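Hi R.,

Here are the chain sequences for the assembly we discussed:
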Amino acid sequence: MKTRFAAEAATNPLIPHTAELIVGFIAFTLLFLVLRKAVVPMFEKAFAARTEAIQGGIEKAERAQAEAAEALQSYTAQLADARGEATKIREEARVQGAAIIEDLRSRAQEEAARITAQAHASIEAERQAAITSLRLEVGSLATDLASKIVGEALEDQARQSRVVDRFLEDLASEKGRN
Amino acid sequence: MRAFAFEGGFVPPSTADFNLPPAFGNSAFTTKPILLVFLSVILISVFFIASSRKALVVPTKLQFAGELIYGFVRNDLGKEIIGAEFMRFVPLLFSLFTFILTNNIFGIVPLLQFPAMSHVSFPYVLAAFPFIAFHYVGIKKQGLGHYLKGIAFMPGVPKAVYILLTPIEIATFFLVRPLTLSLRLFANMFAGHLLLLVFIMGGDHLIKGVIGLKLVAPFSFTLGVVMTFFEFMVQCLQAYIFTLLSALYIAGALSDEH
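And here is the predicted structure of the full complex:
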């Protein structure tokens, strides 16, 4: 502990030492230059890189979010389109179905009318045929019957013909009444 | 007790204890404080170059430690106080803070155990840097005439008050600021070191004394340890205050209304 010099005991601590002023200036300037040149730019670089990394991450997330929103919007729009399309198709189908039913109905009616007409025609023809065949058959049948009933042969051609005509007239007038 | 101590030949620590002989040789440039100052420059440079060299986005522990100190000076002392133009002054503030902090802490590092800032020459030199810096930016920003007028004749004050205010303002800007800046640092380090000397040298003396004094010695040493912790706080605080005031002076010169 005997480090003090008696000769320096009276030194005023507020008076600077020249050597220390010089050393202090050189040392601090040196430190200042080193820190300014080599340290501060490197720390700033690290800070900037970090800020950029964080901001980049945020921007990326924002971009992804925007893309997702866009995709959702596009899907929603597509869905709405599809719904509209479906409604339109259904409507068209309904209209077409109604038209088809209408068409079928009218065709069926036509067919029915045609069949009915045909039936009428064929019935008429058959009736005519029946009348013709009846006229012949009834004539001969009636003549045969009359000859049998009368018991004598009506050889006489003229008389036979008269009898038949009279019979047919009766028949015709009978039919006219029906 | 005091009488006992002096009987034993106790010499209380004095200002002379700060004038150490040259560590080697016989030069004024090889004294302990000068060697410590150089050591601090080497240590600070090596530490910060090593921690900032890689400039990684995800820092290592070393880089994180360096960034913690740098970020504190840059943001809390630079950005917060100076504002938009702070980046220009960060190297100066960063150098001041690390230089003062390291040299102060040397005061309680075993074997080194001497705060260079208790030699007033170093605070004088250190105060000169922010002193020149804030006058320089003030003149550059506002022009010499406008800057000096702003100091001597503070706007918005009745004319009669200038008789009193002008000398005070001129003294504040050109004398009080650099002097208080350097003397505050010097006095704190000086007094702190003296305080540690009192308790530790006192304890050393007591333990060599009679049996009664030997029993008291541990209390003196214990207080020396307690004061060492206290000193650590003061050392950090003084480095912070010096840098903070430098930043405030620069911010004041940058803003127009003084």
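The two ends of chain A are 169 Å apart (CA to CA). Confidence is low (pLDDT under 50) at residues 1-10 of chain A.

Let me know if anything looks off.

Best,
T.
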